[in-house]
Design brief:
The chain has two domains: 22-235, TIM Barrel; 249-373, Beta Barrel (Lyase, Ornithine Decarboxylase, Chain A, domain 1), CATH 2.40.37.10. The chain has eleven helices and 19 strands. Helix content is 28%, strand content 25%. The radius of gyration is 24 Å and the shape is elongated. Strands 2, 3, 4, 5, 6, 7, 8, 9 and 10 form a nine-stranded parallel sheet that branches. Strands 1, 11, 14, 15, 16, 17, 18 and 19 form an eight-stranded mixed sheet that branches. The protein is of the alpha/beta class and 375 residues long.
Length: 375
């Protein structure tokens, strides 16, 4: 017989954590609504809500009245469902055969990229006595999924013969809304023409194309649903809109050790940094094993402690990094360290790591505690 014993040991505070500002999240959602005020919202929560915590963030968006939650796969949809969140779930990518029965059982909304996929869903839905709401995925330039535009009238006519399906919406994706304005404007026009050729806006309850950059920088035309992701988490893919948004995630750690090293002493692996003078070095309890990017090493990356910026020395290691605090006698063990947040934009860290903010957010690992604050 195994008896349950309550733990009696003390629990230490985390040495690496991500503060998630829920007020900032709601502010950014309001900004998205204000850009296109008469258009419904699909809040994209794939990849653990961009690393912010899937169930917690999905619950907040649900309370704010979004129309859909956009996920990448069935596993994410299942987690939201098991959390008791009842907002409609939209699967942003193609599905494979073994996933479809679960999708139909829970009335999750897939996008359809092939007749074979549609036929499979139709058969399962009829077996379950249901009519599954689906969206027609159209490839207007992304090249990742969806029907190409050449034979869409015939495709739609075929889909509408499947009695187990209701073609409720139509959507496409923008590959370069933050990089190629001319192409993106043409893509919006092309999507609008596709809708008109298929019977006009009245033929589809939901019509969607815009991601964050598409929402912020372009005219919606025939769209009545948007799919913002990155901007909801406080980063604008179009820099001119950044001031409208608030930082949601702040990645933090603590000073774990302070030592003085002599001149000529190497710091971290490879001895890429060698002290030129007696140097007070603080060790920080976070590294690439927590998701902070190793590739910032040697690129003048910095952290924020006690109201000041301090340079990272040498290579970021798996669990720790070092900073130069020679000129800051007040820094001490246990001090809170900001890796990115209100004082260091995540876009700055991404640039120094030669990557993108999406990559930084989604790379924060599970051993980093998510702490939700309202303020």
């Amino acid at each position: 017989m195994i008896t349950h014993v309550e733990p009696t040991e003390s629990i230490s505070p985390p040495r690496a954590w991500a503060e998630i500002n829920t007020s900032a999240l709601q502010h950014n959602l309001r900004v998205a609504h204000e850009v296109w005020p008469n258009i419904a919202m699909m809040a994209v929560v794939k990849a653990g809500a961009y690393g912010h915590g899937l169930e917690d963030i999905a619950a907040i968006f649900a309370k704010q009245g979004v129309t859909f939650l956009g996920v990448a796969n069935v596993g994410e949809a299942r987690r939201i469902h098991r959390a008791g969140i009842t907002i409609r779930i939209y699967l942003l990518g193609a599905t494979w055969s073994e996933e479809r029965r679960e999708i139909v059982e829970h009335d999750w909304t897939p996008c359809i990229s092939s007749i074979a996929e549609a036929r499979s869903f139709d058969q399962i839905a009829r077996e379950q006595g249901k009519c599954l709401r689906v969206h027609l995925a159209v490839d207007t330039g992304m090249g990742r999924g969806g029907f190409v535009a050449d034979h869409l009238p015939e495709v739609l006519a075929t889909l509408r013969t499947f009695t187990g399906l209701e073609v409720e919406g139509i959507g496409s994706h923008l590959p370069s809304a933050d990089e190629d304005e001319e192409f993106t404007k043409k893509q919006f026009l092309r999507f609008a023409k596709i809708i008109d050729d298929l019977g006009g806006p009245a033929a589809f309850k939901w019509r969607h194309l815009a991601n964050s950059a598409g929402l912020l920088g372009y005219d919606p035309l025939e769209c009545n649903l948007s799919r913002p992701g990155l901007m909801l988490y406080g980063v604008s893919p179009l820099p001119e809109f950044q001031k409208k948004l608030r930082t949601v995630m702040s990645l933090k750690s603590r000073v774990t050790l302070i030592r003085e090293l002599p001149a000529g002493h190497g710091v971290s692996y490879g001895r890429e940094f060698v002290t030129q003078r007696p140097t007070v070095v603080a060790t920080i309890g976070i590294g690439y094993g927590d998701g902070y990017p190793r590739h910032v090493s040697g690129h003048a990356a910095r952290v924020f402690v006690r109201g000041k910026y301090f340079p990272i020395l040498g290579r970021v290691t798996m669990d720790q990094m070092m900073i130069d605090v020679t000129d800051a006698a007040d820094v001490c063990e246990g001090d809170e360290v900001e890796l990115f947040g209100p004082h260091i934009p995540v876009s700055e860290v991404a640039a120094k790591a030669d990557t993108i903010p999406w990559h930084i957010f989604t790379g924060i690992t599970p051993r980093v505690s998510r702490i939700y604050i309202d303020g």
